[in-house]
Amino acid sequence: MGVYVTFAALVLTVALIGSIIVTIRLAQGLHLFIGGRVFLFCGIFALWLPPIFIINRPQTPTGALYAFMTDSLYFIFIFAVLTTFFMIVRDVLWLILWQISRFFKKKIPSPFQKDILKKANVVLLILTLITAGYALYEGKKVPNVKSVTFISDKISAPVTIAVLSDLHITRNLSLKKLAGIVHRTRAQKPDLIVLPGDIIDDYPRFIKPHLDILAQLQAPLGVYATAGNHEFYVGYQQIVQVFNNIGFTYLNNNGIQIDNHLFIAGIPDINAGKRIGLIPDISAALSQKGERFAVLLSHQPKTILRSNDNQPDLQISGHTHGGQIFPFHIITKIVNTYLSGAYSANGFKLYVSNGAGQWGPQMRLLAPSEITLIRLIPNKVSHP
Questions:
Q1: Residue 1, pLDDT above cutoff 70
Q2: 145-378 maps to which CATH number?
Q3: Taking the domains of the chain in order of start, what are their residue ranges?
Q4: Of 238, 184, 246, nearest in space to 215 by CA
Q5: What is the mean pLDDT of the chain?
């Protein structure tokens, strides 16, 4: 409850500030009396409120109608966010250019000229609507495949790892989309598949059709999963049992030798597990790796910042969604340090997947979902 209250307070604060800014600028381009401005403010403020009431928790109802309702309300919220952001950026740049033009005695319309501002506001709202529509399309489609290559002296033969992170399977996730993700992943013919957390985000009894589809994930060297923070919100032990029942190998502070040159390990989410006394132990997870190339599945990327003598060669993470919807990238980067893609830090490599699904708004902007294909290649110098 405390987290929800904090979240609601944050949304309301930002909503208040954003609504004031947008109301002032829209009203300046219109001829509105005080009553009209108050009505405009209330309407804009209401656009910000959907997340407080429909924050995506597993207790939500199911069905196409509810899914359509939540998609619509989240679309309205993101439209309000983007409108505010674009308006602030536009007005700051407009004001700067106007001041510069005055200095050089050039003619650029004033950002306070009503007829020009009215037209500029209409254009901005149209462009924002188009942008939000594109974000909805990006969130609903089956992710594209993104390939990444790592070279190592420890690899004696090429290995392909498919990464599916942050699927956030709930009863309202489209079965068609999930089937598309599974089909596209298998079509890459990976040697093994890894799922580094936030795969299941609903109680198993409500998502049996989804689990039947998920069980179709297969690879010659196996499918390996570990827990993200959302697995702990819907019954951790149940989720572990689900993974085992559908044939996945669940990694919990342990690792498995895949062959003579590859070792896969996993730890639970570094924060959420503590609520049930489950503490991530990187040393234990990697204790049997020997001289093999060690891959660590850790849902949160900032695990890499933890000093540890027993380190992996590559950490695969998710959690950030790559920011999911711009401009949330900025906050996500500050909180998680690492946002998206490949990094070198603390003596080893890190790859942060944008994830194949979404949480909350089924939308993405400048952070495309992905099915990641990681290719581990031998160093030809070391292996002539």
A1: no
A2: 3.60.21.10
A3: 2-139, 145-378
A4: 246
A5: 91
